């Protein structure tokens, strides 16, 4: 029997998984992710990769849902964290990269 794979993640990272050809279910919060997981359990999915931020606070519900079940295997994956720098830091970094030394901006 062939099993399917699905990813449950936030809307910001869903596009990347879709571009890779993976079936994606978007969830904005842990409650929505749990509903998607319930749907996957009732279908023929063998693997569910879930954004770990969407599993926070649902550990007991997920344990109850998966009790006496082998599939789907649930794999949490870390959510990418954006590291934004200020506009001033960005310009200072670009200047340093191109002229070779740091210039203090006022």
From TrEMBL:
Signal peptide positions (record): none
Xref: InterPro entries: ATPase_V1-cplx_f_g_su, ATPase_V1_fsu_sf
GO molecular function: proton-transporting ATPase activity, rotational mechanism
Keywords: Ion transport, Transport
Superkingdom of the source species: Bacteria
Pfam families: ATP-synt_F
UniProt record similarity statement: Belongs to the V-ATPase F subunit family.
Protein name: V-type ATP synthase subunit F
Originating species: Candidatus Segetimicrobium genomatis
